[in-house]
Amino acid sequence: MKLLAIGGSPRRDGNSNSLMRLAVEGAVACGATADVLYARDLDVKGCLACDGCKRTPESTCVQDDDMHRVYELVKGCDALLLASPVYFYSLSSWIKQVLDRCYALITPDAPEGQPAPAPRVTPGKGHYLITAQAEDAPFFGYQILSTVVYGLTWIGMESRGQLIATGLDGPHDWEQRDDLIAAARELVRV
Length: 190
Hints:
The protein has one domain (about 1-145, about 160-185): Rossmann fold, CATH 3.40.50. Helix content is about 30%, strand content about 20%. It has helices at about 15-30, 65-75, 95-100, 140-155, 180-185, and strands at about 1-5, 35-40, 80-85, 125-130, 160-165. It has a five-stranded parallel beta sheet with strand order 2-1-3-4-5, sandwiched between helices. Helix 1 (about 15-30) packs across helix 5 (about 180-185). It starts with a strand and ends with a helix.
């Protein structure tokens, strides 16, 4: 299995990014290979909603930034792992920009009377999500999960699992949570 993991926290060693690395380590220990990116290190601009990526089946996003690297990694992976802290009851802005720009991976509709173009993302890929939040109730993590599931389903990826980590207020609180450490290591199935 080829895994692409993208951490969405601005803190490289924050709770969500740290749990993501444990999930990657668990997958690699079972034979997977992985690429790990941190959204804060990427030059990713917001979606322009210009639909330049939909003009033809061969069109790509018109913006020249790091998302073109992410597109190639998504196309080449078997599974995508996204991690985000819950910021203002949603995804962090770092990972949200990446997710929004995945719009360019949606296969455009065929012109009337033409056969459907080949999918931009090979069907059968999966995705995983890790969220980390201070609140004890998991509602906000599941709210984010619904956003991610709907968005990535649009490009043909299916949800394979999630870790909604709650009760994490400080940046290293995960270190005291054996339950979360074990869950992270077991999240990505090879």
